[in-house]
């Protein structure tokens, strides 16, 4: 199955998934460690996201919950929920992401669907569940309808929008009828997760320049030590490691889409030492920047 939408995700996505008439996109993401590995850093968006693990396993983190899911399992990401996807140390790691605005399913009148399911999800008083146990007898139905959406999107047959919308309603049916659309008291939100978005946005805006730890910790009113401990717990790496990873992802885009020299790219993404840039790049992509660019040129 070859899907047309494949790209890295940013922190706060401001692009439209799909278009105004059909606000839904499907992404096929390959996280398998190696030179072709894609990266999905922490990000969030207004749209909801349905995940289906395609092959191997994927660590799916939503908020402070981080769970390893395997092929065939389904997960749900709520609107504005900070999340990321990471691979295991070894083996295949691939998934599909269906990203769409929930308003796409709105009823034209205030019917039972709107009142009991859609409106509570839209106003945030209820949430989709994060993950579901495969042992549940209706999990196969969710997997089937999710797979059907992916197939229809890939085939791009006339009026596929009608069938996709129908499958989304079936997913809502199975979730609601099995009490999986859950009440979401505002008090349960982790304010630190909301504050960390400020840090991620700051990194995105300033990665080309030197970023001091004290700058990041002050954004969330934490001491340097407390901030490092919390950031590592959330992101699974230190702030410096995270900044380096973001810079390497930006370097990949420049290697793929420009003719800039390796030296220019290193400085453009915030590295002040070219040798260190090459070393960090190799750690993440298993190739030097030159080898990465040459391989991509050969493949295209």
Descriptive tags:
seven-stranded antiparallel β-sheet; alpha+beta; single chain; Jelly Rolls; two-stranded antiparallel ribbon; 2 domains; 43% helix; Arc Repressor Mutant, subunit A; 300 residues
- How many E-type strands? 9
CATH architecture of the largest domain: Sandwich
Q: Give the class from helix and strand content and strand pairing.
A: alpha+beta
Radius of gyration: 20 Å
At CATH level 3, the topology of the largest domain is Jelly Rolls
β-strand percent reads: 15-25%
- Give the integer mean of the pLDDT values: 87
- CATH level 4 superfamily of the largest domain: Regulatory protein AraC
CATH class of the largest domain: Mainly Beta
- Please estimate the helix content: 40-55%
How many domains, in number, for the residues?
A: 2
The DSSP helix count reads 10
Distance between the termini: 19 Å
The shape, in one word, is globular
One letter per element, helices H and strands E, the order comes to EEEEEEEHEHHEHHHHHHH
Could you characterize what this model shows?
The protein has 300 residues and is α+β, with helices and mostly antiparallel strands. It has helices spanning 112-122, 139-155, 160-177, 191-206, 213-219, 224-235, 239-257, 262-268, 274-285, 289-299; strands at residues 24-30, 40-43, 48-62, 65-70, 74-77, 83-86, 93-100, 126-127, 182-183. It folds into two domains: 24-186, Sandwich (Jelly Rolls), CATH 2.60.120.280; 191-299, Orthogonal Bundle (Arc Repressor Mutant, subunit A), CATH 1.10.10. Helices cover 43% and strands 17% of the residues. Strands 1, 2, 3, 4, 5, 6 and 7 form a seven-stranded antiparallel beta sheet that branches. It has a two-stranded antiparallel ribbon with strand order 8-9. The radius of gyration is 20 Å and the shape is globular. The two termini are 19 Å apart.
